[in-house]
Design goal:
This protein is an alpha+beta fold and 393 residues long. It has 13 helices and eleven strands. The protein has a nine-stranded antiparallel sheet with strand order 7-8-11-3-4-5-6-9-10, covered by helices on one side. It has a two-stranded antiparallel ribbon with strand order 1-2. Helix 5 packs parallel to helix 7 and helix 8 runs parallel beside helix 10. It is flat.
C-alpha cells in the first residue's frame, strides 16, 4: 500500500489497467457531479433573487391596492370593501371591516355612514362591531355623542338612523350601567340633544329652544319617570356652549342633513334614448327624487319633481323588481339632468323605469314615494318611542 499511495496522491503506474480505468471513470463522475451541484446552486441563487424581487414587488403594490381600495370605497362603499377583501387587505368578517372603518384613514365619512346604515345582516354586524370599538365608559352622554357622530356622518334615511342610534344607546348603557333605566331613555335623550343642537346653532331657526322647554320636552322619558333636572340643564349648557362638529359639513344644516331625506339607496335606472341600465344613488327628499353617480357627489345627475307623478309596479324582461314613475296627465315629466358636458338639460321622459335590489326594497321605495309629502318618518318613529315611555308612567 505504501508503494501505491504516496502522500495524498495515487501512483497510477502501480495500478492494474482495470483499476486505472475505474479511477478515471470515478474522477469523471466526480467532475460531473461537481458541475451539476454548481448548476443547482446557480439556479437556487436565481430563484432566491426572483423571490426577493416578487416579495418587493408585492410589498410595493400593497400600498397602491390600499389606496385604490379607499378610492373605490369613497365612490361605492360596497365595491370598495369587496376590492380590499379580494386583494387580501381586509378579512371578510365584520370585526376586521369595522376596524378599517373606525380608523377611517383616507375614507369619506359620508361613505362610512352609508355602509354602516345598510340593513343587510352583514352590515348590521359591522355596525355593531364598529360601535363596540368606541369607549364611552364614565363619559357623559353629550361627550359620547360628540365622539360617535365624529367617526362617520349619519345618513339621511330615518330607518338607518334608527339602527345606528339604537346601537349607540345599547353600547352607552352597557358601559354606563345605572345612568338610565333603559336604552329607550338613552335613545330618546340622544335625539333630543341632536335636535337641541340644531335649534340653538342653526341661524335660520328663530324660535330657539330654552332650557325650560328642553327640560319639559324630556319629562317622563325614563320609563315613565323624570330624569334629574340638573342632568338635563348640564346637557343643555354643554350644547349651547359648544355645538357638535359634523364631519365634512358643507353648509347644510344638521336637521336637514340628518332628518329630511325620506329614503336613499342604490337603484338601477333605465335610460331614455338608449334603454341601458345604470346604477345610481337615489335620494327622496322635499317632494323630489334626486339621483347621483356616486354617494360622494355634491351635485345630482338628475332631479325628478314628484308633482303630478304616480308610481306603479312594472314588468321588464331583463330586470326584476321594477317600478315606474309616470305622469298622471300623460305629459312629459318635468325633470332635468346633467349631460356629459356638464350642462343642465330638460328630461324627455314620460315614464321613468327603475329596478330595486329585491321585492322588499321595491315596495319600500314605492311606499315612500307615494307618501313623500306626508310627515317625516323619523318624527313618527320618535313619537312612538315617547308614547311607549310615557305609558309606563
Amino acid at each position: 500500500m505504501q508503494n501505491i499511495v504516496e502522500g495524498n496522491s495515487l501512483d497510477m503506474k502501480a495500478l492494474l489497467p482495470e483499476e486505472q480505468k475505474l479511477l478515471v471513470e470515478i474522477r469523471e463522475e466526480k467532475m460531473q457531479l461537481l458541475y451539476e451541484i454548481q448548476v443547482l446552486e446557480d439556479e437556487l441563487m436565481a430563484v432566491s433573487k426572483e423571490l426577493e424581487c416578487m416579495e418587493f414587488s408585492a410589498t410595493e403594490r400593497k400600498p397602491n391596492h390600499l389606496s385604490m381600495g379607499r378610492k373605490k370605497f369613497n365612490m361605492d362603499p360596497k365595491k370598495g370593501i369587496e376590492y380590499l377583501i379580494e386583494h387580501e387587505l381586509l378579512q371578510d368578517n365584520p370585526e376586521d371591516i369595522a376596524q378599517f372603518l373606525f380608523k377611517g384613514e383616507g375614507l369619506n365619512k359620508t361613505a362610512i355612514g352609508d355602509y354602516l346604515g345598510e340593513r343587510h345582516d352583514f352590515n348590521v354586524n359591522v355596525l355593531k362591531a364598529f360601535v363596540n370599538l368606541h369607549e364611552f365608559s364614565d363619559t357623559i352622554l353629550v361627550q359620547a355623542l360628540r365622539q360617535f357622530l365624529w367617526s362617520f356622518r349619519l345618513p339621511g334615511e330615518a330607518q338607518k338612523i334608527d339602527r345606528m342610534m339604537e346601537c349607540f344607546a345599547q353600547r352607552y348603557c352597557e358601559l354606563n350601567s345605572g345612568v338610565f333605566t333603559s336604552t329607550d331613555t338613552c335613545y330618546i335623550l340622544s335625539f333630543s340633544i341632536i335636535m337641541l343642537n340644531t335649534s340653538l346653532h342653526n341661524p335660520s331657526i328663530k324660535d330657539k329652544t330654552t332650557v325650560d322647554r328642553f327640560v319639559a320636552m324630556n319629562r317622563g322619558i325614563d320609563d315613565g319617570g323624570d330624569l334629574p333636572e340638573e342632568l338635563l340643564v348640564s346637557l343643555y349648557e354643554s350644547i349651547k356652549k359648544e355645538p357638535f362638529r359634523i364631519p365634512e359639513d358643507d353648509g347644510n344644516d344638521l336637521m336637514h342633513t340628518f332628518f329630511n331625506p325620506v329614503k336613499e339607496g342604490w337603484l338601477l335606472k333605465q335610460g331614455g334614448r338608449y334603454k341601458s341600465w345604470k346604477r345610481r344613488w337615489f335620494i327622496l327628499n322635499d317632494n323630489c327624487l334626486y339621483y347621483f353617480q356616486f354617494t360622494t357627489d355634491k351635485e345630482p345627475k338628475g332631479i325628478i319633481p314628484l308633482e303630478n307623478i304616480q308610481v306603479r309596479n312594472a314588468q321588464d324582461r331583463s330586470k326584476e323588481f321594477c317600478f315606474e314613475l309616470y305622469s298622471v296627465n300623460s305629459m312629459v315629466i318635468k325633470a332635468c339632468k346633467t349631460d356629459s358636458d356638464g350642462r343642465v338639460t330638460e328630461g324627455k321622459h314620460s315614464v321613468y323605469r327603475i329596478s330595486a335590489s329585491d321585492e322588499i326594497d321595491r315596495n319600500d321605495w314605492m311606499k315612500c314615494i307615494r307618501s313623500s309629502t306626508s310627515s317625516n318618518p323619523f318624527y313618527d318613529m320618535l313619537a312612538t318611542r315617547r308614547r311607549k315611555a310615557l305609558r309606563k308612567k
